[in-house]
Amino acid sequence: MNGGRAIILGRIREALRNNPAPRPHTSHSQVDAAASQNGHAQRQWLPKVGATLPEQIALFAKISEGLKTEFHHVSTIAAAREVFAKLAAQGEWKKIASHAHHDTDALLEGTGISSIRTENGYVIDDLESCDVGVTGCEVLVAQTGGIMVSVESAGGRALSVLPPHHVVIARASQMVPDLTAAFEHVKKRYGKRFPSFMGFITGPSRTGDIERILVLGAHGPKRLTVLLVD
Amino acid sequence: MATQAADFQTLSRRYTADKPFRAFIQKALGGYYNKRDENKANFQDWQGARDLAAETKYEAVNNLDTYLLEFEEKIVARGAKVFWAPNADAARDYILKVAKENNVRSIIKSKTMTSEEIHLNDALEKEGFGVFESDLGEYIVQLRKEAPFHLVFPAMHLTRGQISDLFQKELGSPATDEPEELTMIAREVMRRKYCEADMGISGTNFAVAETGMISITENEGNARLTTSLPKIHVALLGIEKILPKLEDLSLFLPMLATAGAGQTMTCYNTMYAGPRQPGEPDGPEQMHVVLLDNRRTELLADAEQRDALGCIRCGACLNVCPIFKNVGGYSYGTTYGGPIGSVITPHLRGLKDWKHLSAASSLCGACTEACPVKIDLHHHLLQNRRNGAQSSPNPFEKISFGGFSLMMGRPTLYRFAAGLGRIFQPLQGLVNGTILDPLRAWTGSRKFPTLSSTSFHDQWKKERGGRR
To answer: Which of residues 76-115 of A touch B (CB under 8 A)?
Structure first.
């Protein structure tokens, strides 16, 4: 079907045959062979993360501040609803977009604002006209202040990026120390049947393309709020 | 002299003479240095991370066929189509074919240097397709009908005033000198484009063999929208962008962010495993991955410089390069500028026309030190110089160096020549910098140092009576 495949593979094999490249100079440090095999070798070099949950939440909160992610740590879903109601009043929200998910459903209970849900498909312009997208997530990553989302946990691809404000609800049990743990989580959860989209959101959308000056809300959400419930 | 080399000289002369422009570029990079260093310091050991990144890329590039096949098998199983394009023509033709077969009307693009490399926009526009760059910097240079100035910061050469003028002229928007207002103007324009477009074209930062995923890194959210809303997603992928395992991303994503833009993590790092799957609410019906060789295998065949295929296009080497900072991105005349561009362009587009770029280096090694995957950039520049001299020797250079080595090997001849120099230097002063000046290549822009009236040998003899 595609002759290019044979051509390119032929070129690659020809280029590599009896033609070894010098190994990289890695005198500075010994790569731990065992760690390398189980995919953990990077942990010893990457930014350090505390072992306990309170340390991880504190780190997430600190990085969020730098990223301009609005982070709220509350003890109950009722408290999360209060924060949400305040945001809704401030933003004068008229239309909310969300998806079928136990935490988002609990959060939106009794808001009285009209809403659409994405899990069974939606009209693009309809979603675009919403004031906020409310989603769950796979995990929160303490190391980077990131939110891991997927089709499954965030109502598809566009819900978490098209509306101008993204609100994420997560449980404390969803906090993981680092990116490696986040990948382990999705491997464990999905096996080989990954959703077609998953990714990390690390702060509200931004650009520095004009004179390297930071502007939030380039194309994605201008605001990002994380509600962490114990 | 090849025209490319002449163009480089003309443009680099023009840009280096423009002091306000140089100051503007250096100011823009100043903030980057601070943030980069701050983030590097957060690593437990940045050098250890570089070692591991270099090792991982070594493994991937030296087993490229195996990993590409694994990647293909996995992503095809998810319903994506993979097209292997040996050259730019094949890649362009395939994308045009997909667009025509699906009666595409409007195309939205997120940032991809690979598409610049194959001049994709020109080809699509020639066939009547409307193509819109959605990355803010790319959109600005597209409106100006320019190429990106920098791999990562396409419009870093423009002031807000220039951008405001451009938007007024092209979009009829009101004048403003607020970067935020300018960004919002582009946001509004693009919002409509995302919703209307039926094809989205993206690049790829990493391809994961183990899970058959492509990974895209961006800050604005434009790539996410480009790959979410249109019914067709085309991803361009240079064959060297492969990584063996999913967990490798946990090293490469933060390293790319830190080296590329001085961030802990780029705002959006997204993995795509095929088009919309059954039961999913949105996403494209079709996903096409275009695997591009376009002479990357030439670089692969050069074992000495093969590590250059580990490049993750972070732009760190450009940002620290004293040449790039002064001549700017456009002097190079290449898709990939700066040190990495000078290294790889001779392989991608021919040594004869592009070897001059390897001479535009002070060999300070700042690029090699900055590279997150430890590409031995400044040595590769030297190797390109050597290869260039071997493949097309310059007879004048050969005679000059022959004469020089003859003289340096014979003390009597050296003393005689130095004596001649002392006699003739005052005469050179009369023609300094003019066309008659034999030292014009030097004195045209610099002062030639005055030779001392007595040589070191003579001084030694006089002062110390020749004693050791």
So the answer is: 99
Report the C-alpha gap between A146 and A161 in whole angstroms.
15
Residue A116 counted as domain residue: yes
Structure tokens at A116: 């659409």
Residue boundaries of the structural domains of chain B: 1-42+319-393, 50-294, 410-464
Residue with tokens 């609005």: A70
CB distance B179 to B186 below 8 Å: no
Residue B303: partners with Cβ closer than 8 Å, 6 or more residues away: A19, A20, A21, A22
Say yes or no: B69 contacts chain A, CB-CB below 8 A.
yes
pTM: 0.93
Mean pLDDT of B354-375: 96
B260 touches A at CB < 8 Å: no
Which pLDDT belongs to residue A35?
A: 56
> Are B31 and A212 inside 8 Å of each other by CB?
yes
Tell me if chain A has a CB within 8 Å of the CB of B248.
Answer: yes
Q: Given 2.60.40.10, 3.40.190.10, 3.40.50.10420, 3.90.76.10, which CATH number is that of B50-294?
A: 3.40.50.10420
* Structural tokens at position B355: 């070897």
User: Is B191 in contact with A188 (CB distance < 8 Å)?
Assistant: no
Substitution target in B27, B44, B95, B183 with the highest count of A β-carbons within 10 Å is: B183
**A157-176 per-residue burial string, b: 16 or more CB within 10 A, e: under 16:** bbbbbbbbbbbbbbeeebbb
A188 at interface of B, judged by CB pairs closer than 8 A: no
- pLDDT tens-digit series, residues B434-446: 888 878 888 877 8
The number of domains in chain A is 1
- Given this model, what pLDDT does residue A2 score? 67
User: CATH number of the domain that A189 lies in?
Assistant: 3.40.50.10420
pLDDT in tens, B126-169: 999 999 999 999 999 999 999 999 999 999 999 999 999 999 99
Average pLDDT, chain A: 94
